[in-house]
Design a protein that fits this description.
single chain; about 240 residues; mainly alpha; flat
Length: about 240
């Protein structure tokens, strides 16, 4: 059996690959935070149908959602330095991780923008009118009333987007980033035990995605309780 699959090698290699999981986690955290913030502005532009900007956003979203992630990564990694080089700006020395952050952030922004736009549409029109009646500006109404509810409604689909993004991090070694998959490839080249290493990677990715799913459910329930408390207080006062 050891000739085909070495359980001892798989167990020995597991902590080595696990030590590189922080790369995927860091990318997920940075891209999710920045991408969701950018997605909120995209959603506002789409909901309010800002002239010209709305058409640009439609093209951007269609491109990000309609093309393979690896193609986007290569376009940014190879294309941006080439374009900036012709403009006299040399960015070829930048680490590949910078381009990964940029692509993942834009990827999350495109998806979260559409998700938030749909969630904003589910917020009751009466609540928006009530905010205006209380003297809130449009920005205040969105910040205090609309976005908190829209974000809660968006958590399940946003969680799925983050999970998809975590899976996408398995491709970043193509632009020179040393992550878990790149380390598995390097170790496999020395030991010729690729199967054991990729089983390790699959287990680690599975655990990571399971944790993200749990965090998404916890956050959804937590925000639901927070938004229900004011309603309970109003009922008790009546």
């Amino acid at each position: 059996m050891e000739a085909y699959f070495s359980l001892s090698y798989m167990i020995k290699s597991f902590p080595i690959l696990l030590s590189y999981v922080h790369v995927a986690i860091l990318i997920a955290v940075v891209a999710t935070v920045l991408g969701t913030i950018l997605g909120a502005f995209i959603a506002l532009g789409r909901v309010n149908k800002v002239p010209v900007l709305n058409q640009i956003l439609i093209v951007f979203i269609s491109f990000m959602r309609g093309t393979p992630f690896l193609v986007q990564l290569f376009l940014v990694y190879f294309g941006v330095p080439e374009i900036l080089g012709h403009l006299g700006v040399n960015v070829r020395g930048l680490p590949g991780l910078i381009y990964v952050y940029a692509v993942f952030t834009l990827h999350i922004a495109a998806y979260s923008g559409e998700i938030l736009r749909a969630s904003i549409g589910q917020v009751g029109q009466g609540e928006k009118e009530a905010a205006k009646a209380l003297g809130m500006t449009g920005f205040q109404a969105y910040r205090r009333i609309v976005f908190p509810q829209a974000f809660r409604l968006s958590i399940p689909p946003l969680t799925n987007v983050v999970i998809s993004m975590i899976k996408g991090t398995a491709l970043i070694f193509n632009v020179g980033v040393v992550d878990m998959m790149r380390k598995a490839e390097l170790l496999g080249g020395n030991s010729q035990r690729y199967l054991e290493l990729f089983v390790d990677a699959a287990i680690i990715y599975g655990i990571l995605i399971f944790i993200i799913s749990l965090l998404g459910r916890f956050l959804e329930k937590r925000l639901s309780l927070i938004q229900e408390r004011p309603e309970q207080v109003l009922v008790s006062e009546d």
